[in-house]
Amino acid sequence: MSNYKRATLEEEDVSEVPGDTASSPDRVEVGFRKGGIDVLGRRTRLEVLLLVLLLVTLLALLACLLVLGLRFHSESGRGICLSEACITVASQMVEAMDRSADPCHDFYQFACGGWMRKNPLPDGRSHWSTFNSIGEQNQALLKHLLAEKKAQFYYLSCLNTQKIEELGAKPLTELIAKIGGWSITDPWDKDNFMEVLKVVSGPYRAQPFFSVGVSADPKNSNSNIIQVDQSGLFLPSRDYYLNKTADDKVLVAYLDYMVELGTLLGGEKGSTHLQMQQILDFEKALANITVPQDQRRDEEKIYHKVSVAELQLLAPAVDWLEYLSSSLSPLDLNDTEPVVLYAREYLQQVSDLINKTDRSLLNNYMIWTLVQKTVASLDQRFENAQDKLLESLIGTKKSCTPRWQTCIENTDDTLGFALGALFVKATFDKKSKDIAEEMIDEIRSAFKEALDRLGWMDGTTRQAAKEKADAIYDMIGFPEFILDPKELDDVYDGYEVSDESFFQNMLNFYNFSSRVMADQLRKPPNKDQWSMTPPTVNAYYMPTKNGIVFPAGILQAPFYAHDHPKALNFGGIGVVMGHELTHAFDDQGEPFLNVN
């Protein structure tokens, strides 16, 4: 009320000012007077005041619109990337499209039709993608970088086709004779099952019947342990052997391949065909007891820790202490040594199969696994035989691949970290590592936010999942040791390489890797050990270490480039990062919830 009164008094005072009562042609008064108060004057002044306030409001609104407009224009300008990298990527994206396609009818053709048209399936390839394209670019670069001594010697020995052709089958036939012979090529009447088994699967790393390795114990990731699993099939899976007719295309091609290799190594065709058929039948028997992969995904079900003594009782056809002591020489093992079995029932059944199989056939089969392991280092006749089999299996030929590419792949398989050092120095910007780590952190945060929106997940499980996500550590680009010449030399210390014999270089590497495996058993697992070499165009998750690895090879355009807009990097390598992170929570990663 006081404010109202004060306003009234002020209006009355103003009305007494001389001249206010005079008529003015500019003033129109409409109203009435009551109680001595100038109601008309008060309302008019309020209206003026309201008009002023309205005008001020409109001006303020206009100013806000101008500011927002300028900000929008500024932000729009910032949102349009006009750097050289962005223009290049935009051009590549346009080229990859097929704008003649209707995206509502066939979006894949619309988005990727141009890329498919410009990237026809190369000779010798059964499939082709951006992964393959980047891999080939990396190989071409490595071709020009081979300077590290051992890697260079190995690569040159692979390229030396003149020497390979000159030696022919001789390196392998001499090795077979040294081991004890093969009835396919020479008379054989020995009973030396354990001796042959130890040699072919020890220093030469063939894997008849079963495989043996050393790795972190899934139940105790602070300790390495001997691990034994099923093995012994040459074709990609057991399905190629089972429920097939006698004229099955792949099995016929495989038998033809076996016979051709046997005759190239000195066997008589008729006898070789008979004995190779027996080996194939034995492989079929192995396939019949081999556990399918879809039944091996649950780690809890297939993991069995036993002692060597218990393994001996389970599978008595093999002298396990003798065999493991030979494979892991010079380590001192005894009957109490722990071993993890991943195929308990298979090992029991393969032991029964060995006991009831003729010793000559067992020897033939073991030597055959060695032939498979080493034949790629022999002359063109053996490669031609491989081509026929590959054509039946996957519809392509190895000979369509240039020799230098094959040799790059072999060198990467053997001396990948030496090769990786050259690759990293030439291609990998250290900024990429920091940016990739930031991307992983952002993806991890988004993943944890997504967990909060899962109504079906209880709080305890959600918290455990978040803790595991936080505990995932990443390895980006390459292991640091490869840039230290001394450390890199130490990794390959003891591996003898020459530029003379590709076959001997391969044998030396198998022997070297066998010694490295033995050396790991009494050491704790190396958390930073890489299973992929730096030039590899791939990534992986390590369940026992709860880590994700992204080699330098995949951190290349178009998946990733440090000067690309974030949206492109997240749409490229970000997809791979998210894929690998979720492996920590799939049926094979989930059992390792509490990694030590």
From TrEMBL:
Q: Does the keyword Oxidoreductase apply?
A: no
Q: Which cofactor does it need?
A: Zn(2+)
Peptidase M13 N-terminal domain residues are 103-479
The catalytic activity of this protein is classed by the Enzyme Commission as 3.4.24.71
- Molecular function GO terms recorded: metal ion binding; metalloendopeptidase activity
> Which UniProt key words apply to this protein?
Cytoplasmic vesicle, Disulfide bond, Glycoprotein, Golgi apparatus, Hydrolase, Membrane, Metal-binding, Metalloprotease, Protease, Transmembrane, Transmembrane helix, Zinc
Where it sits in the cell: the answer is:
Cytoplasmic vesicle, Secretory vesicle membrane; Golgi apparatus membrane
Database matches in Pfam families:
Peptidase_M13 (PF01431), Peptidase_M13_N (PF05649)
- If you read the UniProt record, what top EC class would you report for this enzyme, in one word? hydrolase
GO BP terms: namely: protein processing
Q: Does the keyword Protease apply?
A: yes
List the membrane topology term(s). Answer: Single-pass membrane protein
Q: Which residues form the Peptidase M13 C-terminal domain?
A: 538-592
Q: Which residues cross the membrane?
A: 48-70
Q: Which reaction does it catalyse?
A: Hydrolysis of the 21-Trp-|-Val-22 bond in big endothelin to form endothelin 1
Protein name (Swiss-Prot/TrEMBL) = endothelin-converting enzyme 1
Which classification does the entry list for the species?
Answer: Eukaryota, Metazoa, Chordata, Craniata, Vertebrata
This protein's encoding gene? ece2b
